[in-house]
Structure formats: structure tokens, C-alpha cells
Amino acid sequence: MKFAPQCLLKTMLACGAMGWAQMSGAADCGAGLRGAQTLESAHYRLSYRTQPARIAVGRQFAIELVVCAKDQPSRVQGVTVDASMPEHAHGMNYKPTVLRVPPATATPGARFRADGLMFHMPGRWDLTFDVAGAGGTERLMRSIVLE
């Protein structure tokens, strides 16, 4: 099979545009979350913010998050959120509920909201996000120190 040069050029440009759209989609991930923190793994980019913005000891808080797949085959299927205190070898006293949320705007990524989190004592907490996709599950983590 032989291709005309102009057809080959159109195909290359279309493929390049699709690749750029995927890359820029991951780069724009969470753009609608003002004040968001960003974490990255091999296949995902996750942006999140807490509500309220300042976490207080013994007070419940929620997390809004957006997860974008860096590559098309590993679409986001779900997210779990948890936290633990490594120095004390325990986690939270409550299990958060994570629900998928419809996007408010046409921004890229899968949106979720985790409710019912509470850090019941001061110290270092490791906040973990387990992102499930077609290729398996990847863990993203951020340490938070509460005084």
C-alpha cells in the first residue's frame, strides 16, 4: 500500500495533535481547583484541595480532587483516600467516603470528593490516594504536619 505525501503529513499532524491534547490535558489537570496541591505518579496527575483549606486537629474535613491519566489506556476507574500516622503506627478513626462528581466545567480529568476525614491528633499524617486504572493501582502520597 502506498500513501500520498500529503496524506502521510495529515496523519502525522493528527497524531501529534492527539498526543499534545493528552499531554496538555494532564498538565491542565485540576486547573479549576483554586489553591490545589498537585501530586504525580508514573501514569497519573492528581490535584486536590481540602475544605476547609486549613485542617484542624479533631475537626472533620473534605477533599476535592481531580485525577488525569497521563496516557490514554490507563483511564481513571476510581480513587480511595486514606491517612495514617507512621510514627504512631495507626490511621484515622473514621473511614472517608469517596464519590465521583460530575465535572462543573469542561476541564480534563475525573473528579471526586472525599468526605468524613479527620486527623484526631497532632503530628505527621501521610495522606494517600490510591488511583485505580486499567493498568492497576498507583499510590500517591503527601505528608501533612499538624500542630
Brief account:
The protein is of the alpha+beta class and 147 residues long.
Number-wise, the strands total 9
Largest sheet: 5 strands, antiparallel
What characteristic shape results from the CA principal axes? globular
Indicate the radius of gyration in whole angstroms: 19 Å
Number of helices: 1
Structural class per helix/strand content?
Answer: alpha+beta
**Strand portion, in percent?**
over 45%
String of helices and strands: HEEEEEEEEE
Instruction: Strand order, main sheet: write it out.
Output: 1-2-3-7-6
Helix content: 10-25%
Low-confidence stretches: 1-24
The N- to C-terminal Cα distance equals 69 Å
Mean of all residue-level pLDDT scores: 82
Give your account of this protein's structure.
It is a single chain. The chain is an alpha+beta fold. Helices cover 16% and strands 48% of the residues. It has 1 helix and 9 strands; from the N terminus they run αβββββββββ. It has one helix spanning 5-27; strands at 37-40, 44-51, 60-69, 76-85, 90-91, 97-101, 110-118, 123-133, 136-146. It has a 5-stranded antiparallel beta sheet. The protein has a 4-stranded antiparallel beta sheet with strand order 5-4-8-9, with no helix packed on it. A hairpin with a 2-residue loop joins strand 8 (123-133) and strand 9. The longest helix is centred in the N-terminal third of the chain and has 23 residues, at 5-27. The radius of gyration is 19 Å and the shape is globular.
